[in-house]
């Protein structure tokens, strides 16, 4: 990121390559990706399904290792760290908000927050209660995950990620299965952590409404970083000119739109086969319609027509 010294960078990714092998097939998930994120910044990683955005997030969080390249997070070289070092890093320096929440069903809301604190040797019941209030779950300390709505479970997942007060927060599709209003509330909680408390947030999304709330947006397609732009205008921050960056954004947006239409067709087929009910079909249709409108609005906002 031009103009920012190394001491001001929370995340540095240099030439990262990730290759998976499955049943003799070689899949290149990331192809020499390089980017940086400043302290206190919110970076949205945007791309269609299978683009490599979750793989990149997992590598930043120390959940997965790159085959090549370097990753430095909060001054710690994640890419070369050993097992115990990585465990402490994930426990103390990074809070991970998983798309499927990863809450423990047999623990109450408060107990889910206290668990990572206990593992770090600093359980603090009062802090756990304060975190619940911060995410709008005050008074629900004794509720089990199944007793919470989907939006409440995601807010609890955010509170769990914040348990040990990590400087870095990563979130994988934090609004993917939520309605627009609930999803926006989740993102605003993450924005507050960055802009009011100085934490660095890296999140993945396929939704331009979420990306628009970030400070910068990294566009990934087929494992390649296609460009970085600000929500207010396209900026060729990775060597792309504005025309090239615009083309990259347009291509990714249209693939996201294609993915949404495919999910709708799959839901319709499952409904016809009797595998899902009408409520599930309507929910999918509503989400896809909203995403379709958001993508078209974003293309129009960026001056891309046709």
From TrEMBL:
<keyword id="KW-0547">Nucleotide-binding</keyword>
<dbReference type="InterPro" id="IPR017911">
    <property type="entry name" value="MacB-like_ATP-bd"/>
</dbReference>
<dbReference type="GO" id="GO:0005524">
    <property type="term" value="F:ATP binding"/>
</dbReference>
<dbReference type="GO" id="GO:0005886">
    <property type="term" value="C:plasma membrane"/>
</dbReference>
<protein>
    <recommendedName>
        <fullName>ABC transporter domain-containing protein</fullName>
    </recommendedName>
</protein>
<dbReference type="InterPro" id="IPR015854">
    <property type="entry name" value="ABC_transpr_LolD-like"/>
</dbReference>
<dbReference type="InterPro" id="IPR003593">
    <property type="entry name" value="AAA+_ATPase"/>
</dbReference>
<dbReference type="InterPro" id="IPR003439">
    <property type="entry name" value="ABC_transporter-like_ATP-bd"/>
</dbReference>
<keyword id="KW-0175">Coiled coil</keyword>
<dbReference type="InterPro" id="IPR027417">
    <property type="entry name" value="P-loop_NTPase"/>
</dbReference>
<dbReference type="InterPro" id="IPR017871">
    <property type="entry name" value="ABC_transporter-like_CS"/>
</dbReference>
<keyword id="KW-0813">Transport</keyword>
<keyword id="KW-0067">ATP-binding</keyword>
<dbReference type="GO" id="GO:0022857">
    <property type="term" value="F:transmembrane transporter activity"/>
</dbReference>
<feature type="domain" description="ABC transporter">
    <location>
        <begin position="11"/>
        <end position="247"/>
    </location>
</feature>
<dbReference type="Pfam" id="PF00005">
    <property type="entry name" value="ABC_tran"/>
</dbReference>
<feature type="coiled-coil region">
    <location>
        <begin position="250"/>
        <end position="277"/>
    </location>
</feature>
<dbReference type="GO" id="GO:0098796">
    <property type="term" value="C:membrane protein complex"/>
</dbReference>
<dbReference type="GO" id="GO:0016887">
    <property type="term" value="F:ATP hydrolysis activity"/>
</dbReference>
